[in-house]
């Protein structure tokens, strides 16, 4: 590694730390200053949530640009314009890094999200997820009902079907929640595929373990997939969900399709 490469790597460690520090400070400001003001001025919960989600989108966009211009990362969106007209749509994405949600939500003025119940007790995050009307992953029936209500009202819902960040070297396995939501709400699917080269902010690595070269995040927005054929061709909602899940497995992780076909030979 050259002297310049070493300096660049050390700087990216500093830049990454500064960016996440700003993220934490920004989250606290939104939680205790901005969002309480919106709560008092909004006419109803729906208006409050829409305002909060718009602020989140703009804040995430600023954060992404800060990471880019500070040289912590590079990123590129292909097909982001396709998201502008999506309504009553389930956005399905793979999850290779910590900031996938931030990158995708930075392009969506309205975006509901499923969050772990534990985040409702996190001092940095709980005010944001509550004000934004995000959906806690809790008792299955109530959870599915709330997701369906959001989608049927015209909202966009972002879901990472794997439920957690991808672990390098381990075959990705999807939970069936995303497929069940799609079938239950009869909502079409928008597929988003995220790649990170080299890997960065993974589940098994610390934030300061930056690679030798600047990470590149490539976010590809794919065509919308109609849910109706999966429902019509199935003899039950469970069967339809299984078929949707099989499709998502190959759409999000093409390497799984290759491995499966190779194993069957």
TrEMBL record:
Superkingdom to which the source organism belongs: Bacteria
A Gene Ontology biological process term: phosphatidic acid biosynthetic process
Pathway participation: Lipid metabolism
Classification via InterPro entries: Plipid/glycerol_acylTrfase
Residue span, Phospholipid/glycerol acyltransferase domain: 89-199
Molecular function per GO: 1-acylglycerol-3-phosphate O-acyltransferase activity
Pfam family, one: Acyltransferase
Keywords per UniProt: Acyltransferase, Membrane, Transferase, Transmembrane, Transmembrane helix
Transmembrane segment boundaries: 12-35
Protein name stated in the entry: 1-acyl-sn-glycerol-3-phosphate acyltransferase
